[in-house]
Design goal:
Layout (H helix, E strand, L loop, with lengths): L1 H11 L5 H4 L6 H22 L6 H27 L10 H21 L2 H24 L1 H12 L1
Length: 153
C-alpha cells in the first residue's frame, strides 16, 4: 500500500510528453503497476491456499491494478508506434522489464481469477518481453561485441 501511495505521487508528476521523448525509462511507470498487480495476485493466491475466501475487496483491487497496467502498456506501445526510438540507449533496458512484469502479472491473475484470456495474454507478453530483451541486446551490447569480433578477425 505504501508503494502504491508513492506511485500516486510519482505519477502525479509524470509528464505525458515523456511518452514521446523518453529514451526507455518512461516504461518504468507501467512496470510499477504490473509489479503491484503481481504482488496482489500472489497475496490473493496465498490467502486462498490458506482457506480465506474473502470478499470482492482484494480481488477488485488486483483486477483494477491489472486494468491500469493494461492501459499503461497500451499507451506505452502506442507511443513507440507513433515515435519509434530505434537506436540503442542504455535506458532501453527499462523498456524490457515492464513487458516481462506485465506478462507475469497476467499469468498470476489468470491463475487466481480464472479466465483463460489472462493466461494467453500473459504467455504472449512473456514472449514479447523476450523479443524486446533480444532486440535491446542485439542493438547495444551485441552490436559492440559483433564490431569488436569483426575487427579481431
Amino acid at each position: 500500500l505504501l508503494g502504491l501511495a508513492a506511485y500516486l505521487l510519482v505519477v502525479s508528476r509524470f509528464e505525458v510528453e515523456e511518452l514521446f521523448r523518453g529514451r526507455g525509462d518512461h516504461w518504468v511507470a507501467g512496470g510499477a503497476l504490473a509489479i503491484a498487480t503481481l504482488a496482489g495476485g500472489e497475496l490473493w493466491l496465498g490467502l486462498r491456499s490458506a482457506g480465506y475466501q474473502g470478499g470482492p475487496g482484494l480481488e477488485g483491487v488486483v483486477v483494477g491494478l491489472w486494468v491500469l497496467a493494461s492501459l499503461w502498456i497500451a499507451a506505452l506501445i502506442a507511443s513507440e508506434v507513433i515515435r519509434p526510438r530505434l537506436g540503442y540507449h542504455h535506458l532501453r533496458w527499462a523498456t524490457v522489464f515492464p513487458l516481462g512484469m506485465y506478462g507475469v502479472c497476467s499469468l498470476v491473475l489468470g491463475r487466481v481469477a480464472g479466465p483463460l484470456a489472462f493466461l494467453v495474454l500473459g504467455r504472449v507478453f512473456v514472449w514479447v518481453a523476450l523479443a524486446a530483451w533480444l532486440l535491446v541486446l542485439w542493438s547495444g551490447p551485441g552490436k559492440r561485441l559483433r564490431s569488436g569480433l569483426g575487427r579481431a578477425a
